[in-house]
Every structure is written in C-alpha cells, then in structure tokens.
Amino acid sequence: MLTEQLTARREQIVRDYYDSNDTQDWDVIRSFFAPQMEFRVGNAEPIRSLDVLQENVEGNLKSCEVTVMLHLIESFIHDPQGRYCVSEIEVQLARADGRTFTGPCVAVFRFDDEDRIESYHAYLDPGHFWL
Q1: Helical residues (DSSP H) of the chain, grouped into ranges
Q2: Contact between residue 129 and residue 64 where contact means Cβ atoms under 8 Å apart
Q3: Which of 81, 82, 100, 83 is nearest to 91 (CA)?
Q4: Selection from 83, 93, 86 nearest residue 116 by Cα
Q5: What would the pLDDT profile of 33-62 be if each residue is shown by its tens digit?
Q6: Can you give the pTM of this predicted structure?
Q7: Count of CA atoms in the C-beta half-sphere (13 A) of 131
Q8: By CB neighbour count within 10 A (0-12 exposed, 13-18 middle, 19+ buried), where does 50 fall?
Q9: How many other C-beta atoms are found inside a 10 Å radius of the C-beta of residue 57?
Q10: How far apart are CA 118 and CA 79, in angstroms?
Q11: Which residues have CB under 8 Å from 95's CB, separation 6+?
C-alpha cells in the first residue's frame, strides 16, 4: 500500500540511483537492483545481468567519449499499490567531440518488497548522439 513514507523512500532511491549513474559508481549502481532484474531502454532487448549491463554502458560511454552525463529529475508518479515509481527526467549528455543532447526521458521503476529495482524501463530519443 502506498504511503508518504514509501513514496519518499522510493523517490530517494531513484535520486540516488541516478546520482550513481552520473558518476558511474558501479558498486552503488549494483546495490539498487534485485538479483532477478530487468533493464531496458525503449524497444531494445531487456538486459537481465548486471555484468552485461555494466559492460554495455561502459562500452557505449567509452566509444562515444561521453564527458558529461546528468539526470535531472523533474517529477514522480506512483501507483496506488506502491510497486511502481515513474520519473520524468531531463537527460544531459556531452561528448568529447562537442556533440550534446538535452532531452526528456521517462523511466518506470518496479520495486520488490525490499526496495530493490526489479525492472527499469526508460523511454527517450537521444537522436544520433550515440552514433
């Protein structure tokens, strides 16, 4: 059941999760996920392994020479049962070659009973930033 305490706790988890993403602190990032996790962006195939997720993210950031990655949370929506938290985010990315992206993103988090992320599904269109 959704309570003010639960919404505050989940919102802080989401904030802390994005802070760890922005600094690429993989020890902290890993601590947010349940053992049986699913990570997906858009219509891509889901990733169900933190090792594969880390490898993919680090590889993309390195190959694109990303110098800045910021997630600025604008709002939250919670379902009445308290399993889901949706966050509206402004994503800011910059590359060493000067290309940038600033745009909206929506991410859906599904939590388990221990406040770990079971499922993360983000929706954004970064254009040609990653090419």
Answers
A1: 4-23, 26-31, 50-63
A2: yes
A3: 100
A4: 83
A5: 999 999 999 999 999 999 999 999 999 999
A6: 0.94
A7: 4
A8: middle
A9: 18
A10: 15
A11: 64, 65, 66, 67, 129
